[in-house]
Predict the 3D structure of the following.
Amino acid sequence: MVHLSSLLLKKYHAGYVAIRLALAGHKQANRPFYRIVAAYNKRARDGKYIEQLGTYDPLPNIYNEKLVSFNFDRIKHWIGCGAHPTKPVAKLLGIAGFFPLHPMTITEAERRRAKAMLTETATGTEDGQEEAQKEAEV
């Protein structure tokens, strides 16, 4: 199927095949869940796609994990065919170890860690002040 569709696309796009690896929505109300798909560049996000390559569930489960699954063999195939991953898919593939990590991914993680440390120390000093006030009252 892939070979036939690529031949048809070459005629349609005058020799230029534009395929992207993107996140496609999974039609559920108030529940974000995405499929990682190979789709034509001009299609809508939730439109028709060529092949599903994985899934991404951004809501954390009971173990605070965001679940991602990939079919790496098919992703290699599509990248070999000239498909370009979108930024969110490239970020997920970088975190999974398929691509090198984007520098902004590391920077964002460091910023979040520093912010968490600041809030932790701020709550720690507030707790210390409350304990000091209780001791002063007694």
